[in-house]
Fold this sequence. Notes:
β6 and β7 (110-111) form a beta hairpin. By secondary structure, the chain is α/β, with parallel strands linked by helices. It is 25% helix and 24% strand. It is globular. The longest helix is centred in the N-terminal third of the chain and has 14 residues, at 18-31. The site of one zinc ion has 8 residues, from α9.
Amino acid sequence: MATYKIVLFYGFTPLAAPESVRLWQQALGERWGLTGRVVVSRHGINATLGGTVENLKQYVRTTRQHPGLEHIDVKWSDGTGADFPRLSVKVRPELVSFGVPDEVEVDERGVVGGGVPLGPDEVDALVAERDDVVFFDGRNAFEAEIGRFKGAVVPDVRTTRDFIEQIDSGTFDHLKDRPIVTYCTGGVRCEVLSALMRKRGFEEVYQVAGGIVRYAEARGADGLWEGSLYVFDERRHVEFADGVEPLGSCVVCSAPAARYENCGDASCRTLRLACAECTPAVTAGRCEACVAERPGSFVPRPTARPGVPAAV
Ligand SMILES: [Zn+2]
Ligand SMILES: [Zn+2]
């Protein structure tokens, strides 16, 4: 029986011809029957892909043959073979959409001016030595609802684009002379975020090397990570130890919950936390915003019950 895995990696390196890299990556993905998404930009490549372990190994080996991508750090996790609906390979102005493509500078060593990368031992040592360390969440705010570093500052951002506005508004100016440790899922967002923060006057900026995935895998139930990690694939969330208590709570009954479900209206992109018991009601029902904006019109997902449901 085939063993399915998921690979997660990024590489910041100048790519002079992103479109030809896209075509090459598309061909590789198709050749080895992979699904998931790849973003290519003139700053590098960012990928999350699922497939059989043999095919993914072939894909990674071939991708590493590209100049500048020889040393990409690939994170492996278990997959099911149905973790992503399709293969999507796109060229974008940025690997991560902060909305400042011309501000991000990349050379052969990666993002120019980024925060100092810290491995798990270095993160723990810094926090042990200094009492003013600030963990700064580099993800969308809803992701932090189910898991975050101990005492983290969670910016009120709906998308990565909101970071610059929040930082420029002065919301975090009081943290400018404290040691800041940025973190995100696999590290890619913080490569850029840490550089943008340093440019904006944050004096001592670090980044968790390899992101939450690397840190929490090394620490399990111990360490400074708390709760679950949100992932955008069909797993929805990942825990790094048995018996982790969910940090979030169900939108219906407030019971502990770690799993985000789509609103029952297919035209709505709201994600809501639901416990196992309330999941059928949440996935069949609508969120309050839908009901307020489109009271009579309902685009049911294939799983929805007949009729126009009330808000859940
Ligand atoms: Zn519930
Ligand atoms: Zn909705």
